[in-house]
Amino acid sequence: MSITVVVLAAGRGTRMRSKYSKVLQKLSGQTLLRHVISTARAIEAQKIIVVHGFQGEEVISSIRDHDITWVEQQSQQGTGDAVKCALKQIPQSGQSIILYGDVPLIQAKTLKKLHSSSLNNERRNLSMITIHADDPKGLGRIIRDENGKISAIVEEKDANEYQRHIKEVNTGIYCVDNALLHLLLPKLNNDNAQGEYYLTDIVALASKEGAEIKAVDPILRFETDGVNDRVQLARLENKWQRYMAQELLRQGVQLADPDRLQIRGHLACGQDVFIDTCVTFEGDCTLEDDVIVETGAVLRNVYLHAGAHIKAYSVIEDSVVGPNAQVGPFAHLRAGTRLEANTKVGNFVETKKTTLGAGSKASHLSYLGDAVIGENVNIGAGTITCNYDGVNKFDTRIEDGAFIGSNSSLVAPVTIGVDATVGAGSVITKSVEPGVLAVGRAKQVIVTNFKRPAKTEQLSAFDLLQSDIAPDAPTEADPIEAKPTETKPSEGERVDTPEHPTENKPEER
Ligand code: UD1
Ligand code: CA
Question: N or C: which end of the chain has fewer CB within 10 A?
């Protein structure tokens, strides 16, 4: 059966008090319009028509990744006029489901129910989603005849006192035979309180045509909530977040507090996953069995293998974390990071486009960018891959079993061979052979007769001006005065090294 979806999205949404179109506001990390389009895709609509108006260009460019028929409504003369603008694009047969761009959380299941209620029928059909509202203010009222059959929708501004007391209201979501739409839309007029072409008037016209008109309930209550201002947007966001959290709990995920979880996208979880408070998931995230995510973590497009443990306040983007790997606290894995099994990335470590082989560790304070790191490598605290010369990026390779001493700078492109050792504090600019020790740092000097500077009388700025001491002239207390000639080798100093080892010549032991 062929379904066309028509989405009305031409309105500005003045009550949002935003410079952007209402349908571009975000709920759960996605624009309102994208939610509706994704649902239209989920019911396998043959054609999706979006009626745009205010900020049309921005609206169109926000959904470039979907095949959409765009129709412009130049001046907004009402919901009926909006669908009329799309009429040429609506096929003559099949059904159309009409959705609003500002009712973002309508679910595919409910639309399928709506669609099937309009099938198996000899007569032309119009089905619509209605709800019973405690406070029907501002909504179109459903008018039923003496037999309980729907005969019309009356907008609040046009309703009489009796009609205003009706609690059954129009949600604005319909499934209509295309033949009926083609027949009735040209018959709409704007003879009403708002001087608009009301789409709702097709109900009375369809009733006169002898069409079958049915009402369907939404499966979830908030599905038909519209967003007109930021209060409604925040409220709907909250309802949606709580709903997603309940779904996770039902699937067996343990949440420290279902009221303090944010999912902006899609989260899939295995068994016995534990998610602590205030964790944010964005994009597509998958957590396999027994994953633990501690408080404050922000995870965007991540795949966490079984048993991975993300410690507090870590940020991970576009990355894969291997089985039983540990990350954080306070780690930042940027796009293209791949941690293999049993790896450890500790606090204040940043990675980017980097693979860390099984069993390797970078436990503290490092930057690892554009690096391929083998298995069982130890990256000492403060190690930096210097991957950028201001113009180009270069790769660093650290092979299996290598040991990088703390506070080393590896100036890429560079390779550290299998089982090689880099002495702490080294600046490594040339590749290191497997198995050797590379040390690239200034030689230690011991000054035995060194005297700490003594406190001198503080001179005022005026005194300084008066005196003939130049401000940067060395004073007696300046430690650079300690002359190498005054030094004696001590136990800590190696005597078998050349007098002036060059930066790139490793010292020999
Ligand atoms: C509409 C219904 C009302 C229903 C309510 C549910 C009509 C006449 N009334 O009222 O019965 O209870 O929705 O939320 O249909 N739009 C256009 N072009 C226009 C006018 C509107 O594209 O010329 C779009 C808006 O961008 C919005 C949607 O249609 O996405 C609904 O329009 P809105 O003005 O908000 O209708 P309501 O007054 O809420
Ligand atoms: Ca509305």
Answer: C
